[in-house]
Amino acid sequence: GTRAPGEAKTGGKKCDCKSSSYRVESMSFREVYKSLPTRELQKEYKKQFMGKKKKRFRAKRKSPESVQLPRYMTPESLSKSLKTTLGKLSKAGGKTFDWWPNTTHKTLRKTAYRDVKDIVLSFEEASSMCDHFDCKPELKTVVTDPDQLDEGVDQGEPRVKAPRPSIVSILGHVDHGKTTLLDTLRGANIAKKEVGGITQETYCFNLILGDSQTETPKPGQPHKQQAGDPKPKSSTLEASQPQQPSQSSSSSPLQAHPPSQIPSQPLDITFLDTPGHHIFVNMRDNAAFISDLAIIVVDCDEGIQPQTWESIAFATQHHIPIMPVISKLDHGVDVDIKTASKVNALAKELTTAIENTGKSFEYPQKHLSPEMIKPLPISAKTGWNMHSFRTEISERLCGLEPMTTLSSSAYGAVIEAFREDSGRGDIVTLVLWKGILKLGDYFATGSTWGRVKQIQSTGDKKLLDEVTPGIPVQIMGLNTLPEPGDDFIGLSEDDAKFVAEERMCELAYEAQHRLESNGDFDGGDGIRGAYEDAWDETKTKAKATAEGEWEETYPDQEDQNLHIYDRASDPNYAPGSKKKPHRVIVKADSQGTLKPLVTTCQEPLKDPETGKETYIEVMHASVGAIKKRDVLLADAGGASIQCFKTRPPAKPTQELIKRMNVEVNHFDVYFDFLRNVGVSLR
């Protein structure tokens, strides 16, 4: 029953590694390796097997004669294109560039080529490295210009031109009546339901205007009449007729429009309601860039405010027609002489502001005509002159007649990006300018890509199979969240991945060369070495500062060793000071609100009661509810977590917060965040 030396378990034959009799096709390498009786035979078999595998590997890794490369790429993607290893590419980089990390190959393998993977190469730099592999590089480009997307359509396919819904943005200062104006148009009551009574995100909805049904929402978007809601427009139409101006004000630049009929053909309009606070400047800029018409709302009592000037600048910079509106005239213009003179003076000031700003940005002269920039007085609360407002919008949009190409690739812009922790994941709100987007289509937006898994309308939350231009929808199926204002392009799977990776590398390349221009990116240390040098410099400055402050504290002491400098007793190093800021982790509900909050935290926050300044350092910022990694990071870095309009964390995460005693603050209104973050940290 015993087995002779050299005899295999299967078949009873002796194994001879020099012959092929031991190779059994039905057995794997591990099975054959374990069947060999002695250690010497196992080593010899492994050596022969790995030698054949390396030969096949080398034959497969032969570099091509030519390769297509993007404008920016990582060494890892370049090595895959050249069909070579990252180690060989790193050796070629060391021979080509003086700044390439001179870390030994053994160390690179231990660290999984960490220093090399952090580098981003341009096409010119990659072309120099291709010479070492006898490969000819070619620049690969993917059409992302909206003017050139129509050229990619087949010549035999007709280019269908069709009208699309107009996009109208409502801009202005905070609490000037923007949301109330839109509530009156669609018969909703969003203004009273908002937290704090102010808008803190960009709302978008579609509305049909121009027939008897436009006074109520679109079919599928019912709004129940509640206490405090505006009355249906069909019942207030006669009451909202504009009052005829008096003879004394006939020459005034501000006049209520005469009664006229709205065009019989209904107009499909997409409205964008933007917040008016100064920290949401990017939302107003994006809305003005996307829209076809910008309505500037000005409060008759407060007049032109900083965000009013800002909104006018955004519209004129993007060459968008402006329709100025003076709001909150609940009793009309001619209620008394004082009100009439005040409103007329505001109308002249507003007209002059648009003209002067338009000259700075080469605003088209056709948009600066007196009829185009003449302010319109209204009252959204009482409905005064709202009929003229609807007439004016219809006349303006009928003159614009925006057209689109349905046969081209889908192209649009991102309005908002957020994350739903309930299971839907990353979601983006967008509106298309051209093309049709369908379920299953691949796309690239900003520096990310994805595939359309779900399309949902923003109004009635109805699931759609496709979306046409001008209709705001929510798309699910992204890899990561883009930034509001990024372009949205429908592409093939390979092109979408290519564009997203190229844009991501372009952003990293600019940051990498900022370090190089400052002298921090020197040869031998790579990008991580630059950060290490900066950290060493920071520690040196801190040590010199501490010694200098010790000399100021004890100028008569000759021996500094007798007295140790106590930083804790120094008010300059008190918690929340400039030299020792509070560390925070910021969590927000969307990308549009996250960036303004992080930007605000970079400046010192003042206590409204004492006026004391509190300095804050943002360790991490992300969208969504608090996760386990956020709690661990806060505990390790001694930071607190500041949440803005986020969902409560999961129960395991809440238990972890209590166990680690991490401070967490929740805010639903932005001015509470700005006013109370510094106070809560102290």
UniProtKB/TrEMBL annotation:
Cellular component aspect of the GO annotation: cytoplasm
Keywords assigned by UniProt, alphabetized: GTP-binding, Initiation factor, Nucleotide-binding, Protein biosynthesis
Biased composition (Low complexity): 240-259
Domain Tr-type G: 163-403
Pfam families assigned: EF-G_D2, GTP_EFTU, IF-2
Domain of life: Eukaryota
A GO molecular-function descriptor: GTPase activity
Cited SUPFAM superfamilies: Initiation factor IF2/eIF5b, domain 3 (SSF52156), P-loop containing nucleoside triphosphate hydrolases (SSF52540)
Statement: the UniProt record of this protein carries the keyword Nucleotide-binding: yes
Family: Belongs to the TRAFAC class translation factor GTPase superfamily. Classic translation factor GTPase family. IF-2 subfamily.
NCBIfam families linked: small_GTP (TIGR00231)
Name of protein: Tr-type G domain-containing protein
Organism: Amorphochlora amoebiformis
